[in-house]
Design goal:
Strand content of chain A: over 45%
Number of strands of chain A: 12
Shape of chain A: globular
Structural class of chain A: mainly beta
Oligomer: heterodimer
Distance between the termini of chain A: 41 Å
Largest interface: A-B, 25 and 27 residues
Chain lengths: 114, 114
């Protein structure tokens, strides 16, 4: 079955520390992959996407993600956390089937400590 | 450029009442989606429509019906609302030729069922 798993519903880091948010998907064919961020009481904002080509993708606000086909993973990282990064992050997967079916992980809430 | 417009923004219903959530996009997109967002569960796909005249079930379709009225509009209907359907509902769209493009989201409809 097609699925998206985000490990860790909550992640807490200190300001300036590395941020690592994990995402794994289940699919026999490499899909299209996205990371979104949601601030409280707001809609979803695209951070970055992987489609084809370079497996390390850079996004906005200093975030990047690496697609690893062998591990069916697309983990999100940021070298140095900032207080403004506190939000909820969602991994989304668009499968290479008809209909552009796109499903989301359960989300990871990032807390940044001063 | 309005993007994806959802109406209403807020609604309170009593158990057993019916309701239609409206969604319209002005970007000439072919594919449209309905998601619900609940704490700790991310965005779950209810139904999607790859193109005008087609609809498909997503992850959690029970208790909902949809209509792709035309290319612009995709409505979600609750025939007999239940408290378990209390949620924030998001509509999204993406263009046909844009399999690698992110979805555009509406601002959401906050629905409470008493």
């Amino acid at each position: 079955a097609q699925s998206v798993t985000q490990l860790g519903s909550h992640v807490s880091v200190s300001e300036g520390a590395l941020v690592l948010l994990r995402c794994n998907y289940s699919s026999s064919v490499p899909p299209y992959l996205f990371w979104y961020v949601q601030y409280p009481n707001q809609g979803l904002q695209l951070l970055l996407k992987y489609t084809t080509g370079a497996t390390l993708v850079k996004g906005i606000n200093g975030f990047e993600a690496e697609f690893k086909k062998s591990e069916t993973s697309f983990h999100l990282t940021k070298p140095s956390a900032h207080m403004s990064d506190a939000a909820e992050y969602f991994c989304a997967v668009r499968f290479n089937t008809g209909g552009f079916k796109t499903i989301f992980g359960a989300g990871t809430r990032l807390f940044v400590k001063a | 450029n309005a993007g994806v417009t959802q109406t209403p923004k807020f609604q309170v219903l009593k158990t057993g009442q019916s309701m239609t959530l409206q969604c319209a996009q002005d970007m000439n997109h072919n594919s449209m989606y309905w998601y619900r967002q609940d704490p700790g569960m991310g965005l779950r796909l209810i139904y999607y429509s790859a193109s005008e005249g087609t609809t498909d079930k997503g992850e959690v379709p029970n208790g909902y019906n949809v209509s792709r009225l035309n290319k612009r509009e995709f409505s979600l209907r609750l025939e007999s609302a239940a408290p378990s359907q209390t949620s924030v509902y998001f509509c999204a769209s993406v263009g046909q030729g844009d399999r690698n493009q992110p979805q555009h989201f509406g601002d959401g409809t906050r629905l409470s069922i008493l």
